[in-house]
Structures are given as C-alpha cells and as structure tokens.
Design a protein that fits this description.
Blueprint (H helix, E strand, L loop, with lengths): L1 E9 L3 H19 L4 E4 L8 E10 L4 H15 L1 H4 L5 E5 L2 H4 L1
Antiparallel strand pairs: 1-3, 1-4, 2-3
Amino acid sequence: MIDVYVYFRSSAGDDETVATMQRMQQAVRQQCGIAARLQRRRGDSGPQRTWMEIYPGIADERLQDVLAQIDAEAQRSGIAALAADGRHVETFEPIDRCA
C-alpha cells in the first residue's frame, strides 16, 4: 500500500483553504473511497502557510488513477489556484516493501 502526500503553500485565509480542501477531499472520498487528512505546518506565522494533504493506503494498481483523480479535484475545487508555487506530490511505501 502506498501513501500519497501533497504539500503546498497558500496565502489564502485558513477558513477559505480548509473549506475548499474539505470539499475537495470529500469528492476524492466519494470517487475513490480514500479518507484523506489535512494538516498545516506547525508554527507557520508568515503571510503564507504550508498545508499537507495525506491520502493513505492506496493499492499499487490504483495509484495512477487516484493521483489523476486528486489532481482533477484540485483543479475543479479551486485548491490548485490557491497554491502559491504549485502542489508537490510525494509517494511513500512501507519499509518492508523496500527490503
């Protein structure tokens, strides 16, 4: 199983970002069955905040489809437009798979 992490910086207000992310992640949940989480970098106090989306437990064979759906929903919801320098996607696998 693969975990997907997407991070981005935004100068939009917290309420706007959280509301937009909740709508986006609800759409991903409905379409892909993945319960995502949203986090904010601790201690961010400047005009921009760093946000982290976490999509856990994705099967290898579904990864590309799920990534495409996450990207499509980011565009559709407007969250991509809030990202100051783009959304950065990282994928991680459990250590036991790497051995």
